[in-house]
Structure formats: C-alpha cells, structure tokens
Amino acid sequence: MYFVDQRLWMASGFFEDDWKATPRLTLNLGLRYDFATPGLEGRSRIANFDPAGSGSLEFAKSDSVGDRSLMYPNPTNFGPRFGVSYAVNDKTVLRGVYGVYYSVFQRFGSEDQLALNPPFLINKTQASTTISRRSTSAR
Fold it and tell me: Is-above-0.70 flag for pTM?
C-alpha cells in the first residue's frame, strides 16, 4: 500500500462596502482575493511526464511551490463584486449582482495526483511459485 501525503494551502480575503447613492439607490462594491497551491506531496515525491523533452519524467524540487508541485499557481485571482438595489416604491425593490469567481479547490481523485505517477507508485502483484496439490487419501 502506498500513502500519499497530499497537502494544499489556501488564503482568501475580501472587502466590501455599501454606498447609498440616493435614498432609493444603493450600491454594494467589493473585491475578493483567492489563492490556493496545487496539490503538494509532503516529501516532494511527485513526477510528471514531459512530452517536450525526450519523453522523460520531470521530478519535483523543493525550491518553490511551482517546483514542488510541477504546476504553477495563479497569484492574480482577484474577483470584483458589484451589487445594486433600487427601490421602485415602498413594496418593490429591484436588485442585481455581478461577480467574478474562481474555483480554487481542485478535485483530489487518483487521476490527478502526480504523487501516484512512477517511479513513486509501483503496482505489485504477489504471486506464489508453489503449486497447490490436492492430497489424496489412501483407499
């Protein structure tokens, strides 16, 4: 059995403010920032196939997040938010919103864990070299 020490680091933050432009019109403005590292293996045991090279494996180094994960994160995930509400009368309010959103969580299925690539993962099948023989009872 092989144990993958998968790790992920995330940082997020936001700010927002409401501004009452007129007694009937309110604007909500905001900005969110999201950052997440790609999946990292605790001991940097990650490899990936490099088709641009000579068809060899590329191995993780312990220098930066990109070198450790063999993928480079996007540090520019700024998502603006904008909301508006307008009171038509005392019983009716119209609202609208707009925002840019980033999906920073990655699916952690076995097909996208670079730590499960060779040479760190070796599928072994145990085989027996002895032949099972039936014992015959004396008649």
Answer: no
